């Protein structure tokens, strides 16, 4: 089985700037993403944005420690593994943020290429769960930050 990809789009009633700031706050990732046990910024780029991040994450019984290269551009946050984990060959994706009225339209695409042999329906369910977390968990965190401001 090769990589499994999932795409999702949704809107958030908050500014793109607030959504982007939430993505930049890698340390908060385990607070809003239930699949992340830990997240640690190892390196930052010239702008101070996270560029190398180590995470421990688990989904559908697979837990792994992975290092990701992050790239932040004007309206996009992308990540890809820099090496294989114990259970994952490669993993990555992106958030693309666009203004929509007073809010933000978000496109998320993510993929996972597992090393472990699991039935296809289990892996597809896992990637769908990750996409659900990426949308609902992220939106909830952005709106919580909006309420505090």
Characteristic terms for this protein:
28% helix, single chain, seven-stranded antiparallel beta sheet, 7 strands, Alpha-D-Glucose-1,6-Bisphosphate, Chain A, domain 4, 149 residues, alpha+beta, globular
Describe this structure in words.
With 149 residues, the protein is of the alpha+beta class. 28% of the residues lie in helices and 47% in strands. It has one domain (4-148): START domain (Alpha-D-Glucose-1,6-Bisphosphate, Chain A, domain 4, 2-Layer Sandwich). The chain has helices at 16-24, 29-32, 120-148; strands at residues 4-12, 36-44, 50-59, 62-72, 76-81, 88-100, 103-114. β5 and β6 form a beta hairpin.
CATH homologous superfamily identity? START domain
Shape: globular
Task: Report the count of strand segments.
Answer: 7
What spatial order of strands do you see in the largest sheet? 1-7-6-5-4-3-2
Structural class: alpha+beta
**CATH class descriptor:** Alpha Beta
Q: What value does the average pLDDT take?
A: 89
CATH topology tier name: Alpha-D-Glucose-1,6-Bisphosphate, Chain A, domain 4
Largest sheet: 7 strands, antiparallel
Instruction: Give the topology string: H per helix, E per strand.
Output: EHHEEEEEEH
Number of helices: 3
pLDDT < 50 runs, ≥5 residues: none
Classify the beta-strand content into a percent band. over 45%
What percent of residues adopt helix (DSSP H or I)?
25-40%
The CATH architecture designation is 2-Layer Sandwich
How many discrete domains?
A: 1
Please give the radius of gyration in angstroms: 15 Å
What is the straight-line distance between the termini? 45 Å
């Amino acid at each position: 089985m090769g990589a499994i990809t999932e795409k999702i789009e949704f809107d958030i009633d908050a500014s793109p700037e607030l959504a982007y700031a939430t993505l930049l706050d890698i340390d908060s990732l385990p607070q809003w993403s239930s699949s992340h046990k830990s997240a640690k910024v190892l390196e930052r780029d010239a702008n101070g944005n996270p560029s190398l991040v180590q995470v421990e994450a688990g989904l559908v019984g697979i837990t792994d420690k992975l290092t990701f290269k992050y790239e932040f551009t004007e309206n996009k946050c992308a990540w890809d593994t820099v090496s294989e984990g114990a259970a994952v060959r490669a993993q990555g994706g992106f958030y693309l943020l666009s203004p929509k009225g007073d809010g933000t339209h978000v496109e998320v695409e993510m993929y996972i290429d597992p090393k472990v042999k699991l039935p296809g329906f289990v892996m597809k369910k896992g990637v769908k769960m990750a996409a659900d977390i990426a949308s609902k968990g992220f939106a909830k965190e952005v709106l919580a930050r909006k309420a505090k401001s």
